[in-house]
Amino acid sequence: MTFNGVHGEPQLILALSKGRIFEDTLPLLSAAGIEVLENPETSRKLILSTNDPGVRVLIVRASDVPTYVQHGAADFGVAGKDVLLEHGGEGLYQPIDLRIAQCRMSVAVNAGFDYDSAVRQGARLRVATKFVNTAREHFASKGVHVDLIKLYGSMELAPLVGLSDAIVDVVSTGGTLRANNLVEVEKIMDISSRLVVNQAALKLKRERLQPILEAFERASQRQG
Ligand code: AMP
């Protein structure tokens, strides 16, 4: 990106998604002396200013954060491990686990469905998910045959209407599964959000980036 800050300093662009990642990143930005001046929940702007004229924030879909950073449209960003595994991480430096937006990726089924016996009997399962790469790897490692059905949202609906036998989704409190009469039958992995940095920006803008990365690292260690 060609934005230049005051005094001709390179502009730093941070890619974030709305919601939990944005909210959990604010204290980390604060620790680096950066305050975002607009609220993405009430503003329709997609490029937000901060109190530092040299730093701006792009609001993008969670699954698009790695793409903006990979291509250098953003210098750095925050993305969940779930999203990074699907993206593949190409062109991204991932220096810090920020320990924010913690949740888990799990398999869930209709309350009446006996998942363990279906797996034991070698049944072929229909699995609906947004996370097809992670799901494929998980079931392959267990030797379970699956037909993956790619969805882009509301995975919880799929077993309810007979589209699939199971879903692979991220679970936080479990409230969404319970509300839809689904049960979590297997945890695939713990998830948290990571800082990702464009590899070229890391070299060319190191002086501007380094203090921010260090402040993020210190603040995230305090998250426990
Ligand atoms: P919960 O009802 O608290 O288990 O939250 C589950 C719903 O929120 C699911 O639809 C998830 O897609 C979404 N969700 C919860 N935590 C996260 C997270 N850290 N990152 C992305 N999506 C999440």
Which series of helices and strands comes N to C? EHEEHEHEHEHEHEHEHH
Total tally of structural domains: 2
Overall pLDDT score: 95
Bound molecules: adenosine monophosphate
What does this entry show, briefly?
The chain contains nine helices and nine strands. The protein has helices at 20-31, 65-70, 81-87, 115-120, 132-142, 157-160, 175-179, 199-204, 206-221; strands at 12-16, 47-49, 55-59, 76-80, 92-110, 125-129, 146-150, 166-171, 182-198.
Keywords:
224 residues; alpha/beta; D-Maltodextrin-Binding Protein, domain 2; 2 domains; nine-stranded mixed sheet; 9 helices; 9 strands; binds adenosine monophosphate
Structure explained in plain terms:
This is ATP phosphoribosyltransferase. Heteromultimer composed of HisG and HisZ subunits. Its EC number is 2.4.2.17. Belongs to the ATP phosphoribosyltransferase family. Short subfamily. One of its GO terms (molecular function) is ATP binding. The protein is α/β, with parallel strands linked by helices and 224 residues long. It folds into two domains: 12-102 and 191-222, D-Maltodextrin-Binding Protein, domain 2 (3-Layer(aba) Sandwich), CATH 3.40.190; 104-189, Periplasmic binding protein-like II (D-Maltodextrin-Binding Protein, domain 2). 33% of the residues lie in helices and 31% in strands. It is built from nine helices and nine strands. The chain has helices at 20-31, 65-70, 81-87, 115-120, 132-142, 157-160, 175-179, 199-204, 206-221, and strands spanning 12-16, 47-49, 55-59, 76-80, 92-110, 125-129, 146-150, 166-171, 182-198. It has a nine-stranded mixed sheet, with helices on both faces. Strand 2 and strand 3 form a beta hairpin. It is elongated and about 65 Å long. Adenosine monophosphate binds at residues 20, 80, 101, 103, 169-176.
